[in-house]
Amino acid sequence: MNNPTLGLVWAFSFVILEAAQAVFFGGVFQDYDSFLIGGAVFGFTAAGTLIWVKVRTPEQLKTAWANRASLFGLNLSTALVWIAYFFALQMIEPAVVFTMFSGLIPIAILVASACGVPEASPLRNRVEGVGLIIVVIGVGYLAAITLLGQSGFVRGGRTAAMAGLLLTSASAVSLAAMMIYGRRLDRLGVAPAAQYGLRFPLYVVVALSAAWLGLDGKGPVDPGGLLAVVVIGFAIMAFPVFAMQKAISLMSTVTLAAITALGPMFVFLFQIVEGRVAYAPATMTGLTIYFAGAVLAAYGGARHPDGKSIVHKRKDIATRLDREIAKLHTTHLR
What we know:
By secondary structure, the chain is mainly alpha-helical. The protein has helices at residues 3-24, 26-29, 34-56, 58-66, 68-89, 94-114, 126-147, 157-188, 192-198, 201-213, 223-248, 253-260, 263-274, 281-301, 310-333.
């Protein structure tokens, strides 16, 4: 596989595993302090990864430390993503939060590209652009029904709705920034494994502090149950994050963002499989608009700027190589 194809594999691995986690394991995680679980899962896996990198490729850690501004940006954006997202979930409908969060990431990447950030890639083709326009319409519709009280859940009236929408937007912008910093460090020679270990120190400190303060306390904790949840988290929380880190190094940021925008659709499909789909009618309308745009944007993202898919592009290259080899062979015979 070439890099774009591998990037698609890693990107879809992230999207599908994240959706499966939200649907099939969401209830399990709700019984425990989310900050404690996050701090434990990402703390242990990041520490293990850093030890492995220190032994195998210590020069990558030196490179990252020499670029402390980007390293701090990676840490800060990672911490802000989860903190803002968690508090947004407490204020407005989770389906709205997840959908707006997913849809605003590629928009934030495009804004950064327009501002001249080199790691923020522009649109690749018109198909991707049309899809993202529809995504924006869906996101705007969901924001409007939330402010008007037509969504499934708002805690605290219009003020809480506005706060939830702002936190959701902040979370999306933070993830876009994380992609940009990850891409920058990758170009400097810091591989995905090293970046995974380096991006979580600030988040772990914040998460464990929040757990100690009891911001998401669920009462007495069963040590055996907590250990089981943390072990499960290694597979369905840590691995998807690593999959995204790999995808960042293999594909353009806007294409990755367009593919991650498919997350809400996979959640919806998994909920149909599970037999649990209950959205307010207005929310369902917004999701339908969003899904159409997300599918179109992801399809466009998997194509080259000239409109050909990766598979067709590879066939064209192979065909041209065959022609050149045939010409050389004919010349040699003459």
